[in-house]
Amino acid sequence: MTTLTFTLISEDDFAFFWPTFQTIVQAQETYAIEPGIGFDAAYQLWCKTPQVSWVVKDDNNQLLGTYYLKANAAGPGDHICNCGYMVAPAARGKGVARAMCEHSQQQAQALGFHAMQFNAVVATNDVAVALWKKLGFSIVGTVPNAFRHGRLGLVDTYVMYKAL
């Protein structure tokens, strides 16, 4: 059984994960991030702008994934958080996304957030939608044709929500 270890992300961690980040973003299948984003802008977006960003590693110190956690809105809306998750290709299907989502919910509660909201889950991302539902998230809205999918063209996105 592999033990997963969560640590705050470092610039070295992000640099190591950068090729995976680029591949995910350039595929234009799951994230509404400019496909040509450069390292510095991506590091700012993923690691500096959020309240906190984490990496998860296995027993061999292999980086399996990363996530960020931030307030979803400012002022009167800052009690709801938002997260984004990315998993290294070799770690997919091994419970890493589930572990990150569970960890992020614990961290969100510790930081005083009352709920978690995902603003734009691409509707064709069946694996993520099913996992978020298993972890107690509900689809509270559908935005028609809100995402230009790299292979499928315009597809819907879901707003998903869970009270903490």
Topology:
Blueprint: E1 5-8, H1 11-27, H2 39-48, E2 52-57, E3 63-71, E4 80-87, H3 96-110, E5 115-122, H4 126-134, E6 138-149, E7 153-163
Parallel strand pairs: 4-5
Antiparallel strand pairs: 1-2, 2-3, 3-4, 5-7, 6-7
Structure description:
The chain has 164 residues and is α+β, with helices and mostly antiparallel strands. 31% of the residues lie in helices and 35% in strands. The protein contains four helices and seven strands, in the order βααβββαβαββ. The chain has helices spanning 11-27, 39-48, 96-110, 126-134, and strands at residues 5-8, 52-57, 63-71, 80-87, 115-122, 138-149, 153-163. A seven-stranded mixed β-sheet has the order 1-2-3-4-5-7-6, with helices on both faces. It is globular and about 40 Å long. The two termini are 29 Å apart. The mean pLDDT is 97.
Which consecutive residue ranges, at least 5 long each, have pLDDT under 50? none
Mind summarizing the main beta sheet?
7 strands, mixed
Quickly count the helices: 4
Share of residues in helices: 25-40%
* Spatial ordering of strands, largest sheet: 1-2-3-4-5-7-6
Order of helices and strands: EHHEEEHEHEE
Question: How large, in whole angstroms, is the Cα Rg?
Answer: 15 Å
Distance between the termini: 29 Å
Roughly what fraction of the amino acids lie in strands? 35-45%
Dominant shape: globular
> Structural class of the helices, strands and pairings?
alpha+beta
| DSSP strand tally | 7
Query: Roughly what is the average pLDDT, rounded to an integer?
Result: 97
